[in-house]
Specification:
UstYa-like; 4 strands; oxidoreductase; globular; two-stranded antiparallel sheet; alpha+beta; oxidoreductase activity
């Protein structure tokens, strides 16, 4: 017996979700975009001194990659709260930075959750870009540029998540 698993990434638009109750399991599998689908962008991987793993000393810098809502969105007529996967992953990277705190204020359970989550996100993306091996022999102080990757336009996700936050945050006041 063979089992075929098919995963498709469909970007739902706002109008695609109007008939959903957003209760229980009745919600869209992806954050509905008002703009439709995401465009492709190219990202060249580069070594950077930004976002060091220095615990609380770099926490403010790690916070700069989160939108005001921390990646949470409210959907549907009942204003149900969800988190967008991209921002959950960025949150987990921030938690791993804080895992280097000598006072161990981040619990092992949260750290293990985040490592597992990032592991699954990496598998889910299945990026087939090839990169030169030999990180031990590269001088990253001058040889900083890596391979170019094809990505979805994450800046559009930030815009839509911020618009969603502005809408539901204003309705709460």
């Amino acid at each position: 017996m063979s089992i075929i698993v098919s995963i498709s990434f469909i970007h739902f638009t706002h109008s695609d979700t109007l008939d959903l109750a957003h209760l229980g399991h009745d919600f869209p599998p992806t954050f509905p975009l008002h703009s439709g689908t995401l465009s492709d962008v190219h990202l060249t991987m580069e070594e950077s001194t930004n976002f060091p793993l220095t615990s609380w000393a770099s926490n403010d810098q790690w916070f700069t990659i989160a939108p005001l809502s921390a990646g949470y969105v409210c959907l549907g007529p009942h204003v149900r709260l969800f988190v967008v996967m991209m921002f959950h992953g960025l949150h987990c990277m921030r938690i791993l930075n804080l895992a280097f705190d000598p006072l161990h204020i981040i619990g092992d359970g949260h750290i293990n959750h985040c490592l597992g989550y990032l592991h699954q996100m990496t598998l889910c993306s299945a990026d087939l870009t090839v990169e030169p091996a030999g990180w031990k022999t590269r001088d990253f102080s001058w040889d900083r540029v890596g391979a170019m990757h094809k990505c979805w336009d994450w800046s559009a996700v930030y815009v839509e998540v911020e618009q969603n936050y502005a809408q539901w945050n204003c309705s709460q006041t």
